[in-house]
Amino acid sequence: MKSFSFAVLLFALITVGCAHTPQVASSPASPAASPQPQPIIVASTSDEVPPKPPEATVKSPETPVNSEKGTVNNDTNIDYTEESKEGEAPTIADPIEPFNRAMFEFNDKLYFWLLKPVAQGYKAVVPEEARVSVKNFFSNLGFPVRFVSCLLQADINCAATEVGRFTVNTVWGIGGLMDPASSKDLNLQKQDVDLGQTLGVWGVGQGFYIVWPLAGPSSVRDSVVIAGEYFLYPPSYMSEIAPWYVGPIVRSYEEVNRTSLRIGDYEALKEAAIDPYVSLRDAYVQYRWKKIRLKKGAQIDELAPSGMRMER
Fold first, then answer.
1. 8 Å CB contact between 45 and 37
2. Which of 27, 33, 133, 148 suits a disulfide with 177, CB 3.0-4.6 Å?
3. pLDDT at 88
4. Total-model pTM
């Protein structure tokens, strides 16, 4: 009887112990319980895209730029070095800036206090057609300067065009008062050349910036040719056939007539500028630079705030 009771008690203990034994699959320490990467289902297709492997990294959107070489440090490795060199804006040295600023103020006061009022009164009296004819007349007198400049630049087509223009406008244009040479039939356009441009075409540097009283912005290179252009301009010889004061009067009248046709241009430049002196200096340098580059055969196709880009 005792042996039977002992067997029953042993069987009961074994049964209770097996019922409370923990399962291996439910143990949190088991490696099998760690989450497995699940495939990603693309919404538009039934293809499964495997998850990105841990070693694959995504580059930061803020890609560093190498400022010395002008390159972007990414897979495309775009190089802007050559373009930035071509696109640098023209500059000029200004070692005598105090003198230039004084002359700028003098010319500015002269324009607003004398030249502009006289030109406005002249404009109110003389019709525009007559003022354009006067401009054409003085432009025709500038033929020697343009013709010699074409020859010195070894541009035969330029010289031939100027000869044709001068002949046609002098004969059929009533001494140059009209401009029939620019008509569609003849298409002999005035050549935008001068002696200062000629020196630039042949590689002479511009030197430093100079503002002359009455004459306005210039450079060492362009100032040197003022004497040459003076002797090539026929009105300069008025003193040979008339009293000495006739020549200055003629030149003054030419300037008043020219100003009457473009009143507002200087005012617009000055109002839009933070420093009118610097703006006028930069505008002059870029204008002269463009004339030389165009004459050399370069085409200016774009003006960016940071400079100019040229394409040949």
1. no
2. 133
3. 63
4. 0.66
Q: What's the Cα-to-Cα distance from 157 to each of 145, 147, 165, 227, 234, rounded to whole Å?
A: 16, 11, 12, 26, 24
Q: Are 308 and 87 in contact (CB under 8 A)?
A: yes
Q: Are 174 and 137 in contact (CB under 8 A)?
A: no
Backbone angle region of 214, left / alpha / beta, with phi > 0 → left and psi within -120 to 50 → alpha = left
Q: pLDDT tens-digit profile of 129-159?
A: 999 999 999 999 999 999 999 999 999 999 9
Strand partners, 302: 309
The number of angstroms, rounded, from the C-alpha of 235 to the middle of its chain's C-alpha atoms is 37
